[in-house]
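Appendix B. Raw example, untouched.
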Amino acid sequence: MCDDLVIMLRVVRLLKRRRRRDDVALVRVCADGELTDGEIRRIEGLPAVICCTGGRLHAVGLICPHAGVQLVKGRIVDDCIECPLHGARFALDGGSVRRGPAGHGLPAYDVVVRDGAVYVSRHPRGHGRSRHPWGACR
């Protein structure tokens, strides 16, 4: 009986530590509902932007891989973020190239809404892959 209690306490401690690590891996961006549809906002402390489109939130890399331009100055077109300089488009749901001249995609970040606030993961889940190696139009 005593051994079961010790094991259970160890599991509880482990879960508490894991939860704290998960919370540290998130960056608070804003209050839920603060972003307007079509808005692109830079995320302080991360090389990323957060976008709101159709009531959904997406976070992708800040810099266009083609020309090094900040995408916060871009616009949302057909569920893509468009580079303001050369018009490259990147899918908001994963960062893949949808229209050139960019040759590779953007990193994509997980977005979490919790307790009335919007959080973004500190680490990207991966770089978007282009459907075509040269980043051609779809």
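End of appendix B.
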